[in-house]
Amino acid sequence: MSESKQNKKVDKKAPVIIGVGDFTDKSKEDGLNPQELLAKASELAIQDSGIKNLNQHIDYLGVVRFSVDFLTATNQSSFQYSNFPRTLGNKLGISAKQEVYAPMGGNSPQVLLDDALSKITAGDTECALLAGGEALQTMIARLKSGLSLDWLDEPGGSPEMIGNNAIGFSDHEKLHGMDLPTNVYPLFANAIRKHEGKTAETHLQESSDLFSTFSKIASNNPFSWFPTFRSPEEISDVTPNNRMIGFPYTKYLNSVIRVNMSSAYVLMSQEKADELNVAESKRVYVHGCSILDDIWNVTERPDFHSSPAINACVNQTLSQAEIELKDIEHFDLYSCFPSAVQIAKKELGIAPEKKDLTVTGGLPYFGGPGNSYTMFSTTEMVRQLRKKPDTYGLLTANSWFITKHAAVVMSTKPAKTYEKIDNSSVQKDINSRAIKNFTEKPKGNGKIETYTVINGRKGLEFALIIGVLEDGSRFIANSLKDEKLLNTMINNEMLDAKVSVSQKEGKNIFNLI
User: Fold this and answer.
1) Contact predicate 498/512, CB 8 Å
2) Are strands 244-246 and 392-399 parallel, antiparallel or unpaired?
3) How far apart are CA 244 and CA 183, in angstroms?
4) How many CB atoms lie within 10 A of CB 199?
5) Which terminus of the chain is more exposed, N or C, with fewer CB under 10 A?
6) What is residue 392's three-state secondary structure?
7) What is the residue-averaged pLDDT of the chain?
8) Residue 250 pLDDT > 50, yes or no?
9) Would the CATH topology of 3-169+256-431 be identical to that of 444-512?
10) 103 within 8 A of 163, measured Cβ to Cβ
């Protein structure tokens, strides 16, 4: 160890990332299966560490849950791995005493990271390999072609299941279409512009300007699914290749999940890194990590333009790292849709004009591999920090509908031993803010609080509104498939528009007054 490191009195249990790897496979029917795909990134991460025989030291193998491996997934029955961490370990020649499988959600990588950090601190783990990814491009292509998947393995044992696997919406929300991100994030978009007093056209332009800068970064990233720069006009203009999906979002403002991508990194204590003589140029320390949820059901939140959880997450992480936001040089704000970035920017107090907020290129352009995107933002953040030592990087995660959150701070500067944050009181406070006046069976007149119009591949489908009755009760409702009404809602301002609502065949249906 260099004298400078010794003078800093590096904590022996300080967690440090020593190797990173990413792999993108653009094949279709003949693409790699999940085991092969994750093994590629894992091998690259092990190789990047520069340590021979590192496999022999890995005693923790953690895998981010695949999006298809969840009860809401259409093709869950096609994904039959009973213990994926062991399946991956067998491919890599690793026998890990800790086999861990993380939960559903975009913050799943941080749930996994937090678990590994805690076990390293406790002395239960010395060296951890974390991996995640998706093979949805190949899976869907094979199923559409009538080909078998043969994606199954029963290596024995059961992984330790960690984290919260609850479904991110109520039955009532699902009934009205609030079970899909493409339907819900546009609701946030219109709520944001209402809060800011802006027109739909202005908000769309600002969103397109922001995400154009993301696409520029993706265009220079060798692992990007779409390494193409898109101008603000190309993103905002509705064309046959860029149809409106959920008003006001065009296709180019939506995350892309149908990819074949994998990512992995190796994590250990400073003490273990010293023992293995890991080069200092490889070491990036984890300085803080926090995980929190916003009010679970979107319909019960006080508003749709804020996020107390991401605010608390980031501030806790900065406090743990003993720095301030102004000390952060590299950002990666979770970017499934513009509203996620815009809400995070506002909550963190990031200047509106600041747009370099991704190191990868963002989920619509770099790619949105299910629950695993922040595996990639972590590995790319490591590369950026290695290039510019002694700077700090902040990345955030988001799951479901601005619901599950996480934040991580990293730097080449040495860190302290990791201490898991007890968020129970903060979480209790956030949950206590849920509204009490939501009704599942509204009747009468009211006004639109926020809304979207859903456009499928074959054309306009229905409108979805969150409204407020004259007595102050909140409700959700759909329109009928009425093209005249739907075009009216796209071409005219509908915020605070007056509506009537009643039930039809078990659903809430609204009409403009």
Assistant:
1) yes
2) unpaired
3) 12
4) 12
5) C
6) strand
7) 95
8) yes
9) no
10) yes
User: Which positions ≥6 away from 359 have C-beta within 8 Å?
Assistant: 217, 330, 331, 332, 377, 380, 381, 384, 393, 395
Task: State pLDDT tens for residues 414-466.
Answer: 999 999 999 999 999 999 999 999 999 999 999 999 999 999 998 999 999 99
Q: How far apart are CA 168 and CA 186, in angstroms?
A: 17
Contacts of 177 (CB under 8 A, 6+ apart): 183, 454, 462, 464, 478
Give residue 73's pLDDT: 80
Distances from the Cα of 129 to the Cα of 56, 94, 345, 394, angstroms: 12, 10, 32, 21
pTM score of the predicted model: 0.95
Phi and psi at residue 94, in whole multiples of 5°?
-115, 130
262 beta partners = 23, 133
φ, ψ at 336 (rounded to 5°): -60, -35
**What's the rounded Cα separation, in Å, for the pair 494 and 489?**
6
Which residues touch 451 (CB under 8 Å, ≥6 apart)? 187, 190, 463, 464, 465, 466, 489, 494, 495
Contact present, 507 and 175 (Cβ < 8 Å): yes
Q: Is the pLDDT of residue 6 over 50?
A: no
Q: Where are the domains of the chain?
A: 3-169+256-431, 444-512
* pLDDT tens figures, 49-80: 999 999 999 999 999 999 999 988 877 777 88
Domain 444-512 fold is OB fold (Dihydrolipoamide Acetyltransferase, E2P) (2.40.50)
pLDDT for 7 beyond 50: no
If you classify domain 3-169+256-431 with CATH, what class do you get?
Answer: alpha beta
Report d(CA 460, CA 4) in Å as an integer: 63
